[in-house]
Amino acid sequence: MLVGTFNLVMAERLTRKVCSNCKTQTSAKENPKYKFAKESFRNFDKDALKKEILNRGITQQQRDDFINNAMVYTGTGKDPISGEKCPLC
User: Fold this and answer.
1) Helix or strand or coil: residue 61?
2) Distances from the Cα of 36 to the Cαs of 2, 13, 21, 41, 51, in angstroms?
3) Interhelix angle for 2-9 vs 32-42, to 10°?
4) Residue 68: phi, psi to the nearest 5?
5) Residue from 29, 37, 31 nearest 11 by CA
6) What is the pLDDT of residue 9?
7) 14 near 58, Cβ under 8 Å?
8) Alpha-carbon distance 5 to 37, whole Å?
9) What is the phi/psi pair of residue 64, to 5°?
10) Residue 22 and residue 80 in contact, taking contact as beta carbons nearer than 8 Å
11) Is the CB of residue 18 less than 8 Å from the CB of residue 66?
């Protein structure tokens, strides 16, 4: 169950490729999945967690933003300047 939670949260928020042109940073602090994931990470084998993070290409900044501040990046699909469909997505 712990591995499933880790996979869900990481896949949903950190490991998918978010377009650098239209990404926005949002807070997941009130999301029950975040609270459960953070609690689960405390009991997770540190070496296995580190290996999984490295294998998924998660940066230290992404990890810190998620664990410490509940901040995640999401793609909007819209160009921030024109508001039209993002040309890079």
Assistant:
1) helix
2) 10, 14, 30, 9, 21
3) 130
4) -85, -35
5) 37
6) 67
7) yes
8) 6
9) -65, -45
10) yes
11) no
Q: Is the pTM of this model over 0.85?
A: no
Which pLDDT score, from 0 to 100, does residue 2 have?
60
Q: How confident is the model at residue 79, as a pLDDT? A: 83
Strand partners, 27: 71
Contact in structure between 88 and 19 (CB atoms under 8 Å): yes
For 2-51, what is each residue's pLDDT tens digit?
A: 666 666 666 665 555 678 888 888 898 888 888 888 888 888 888 988 88
Q: For residues 33, 34, 37 and 38, what is the CA-based torsion angle, rounded to 10 degrees?
A: -160
59 residue type, one letter? T
Residue 58, SS3? Answer: coil
Neighbours of 28 (CB within 10 A): 20
Residue 82 per-residue DSSP state: T
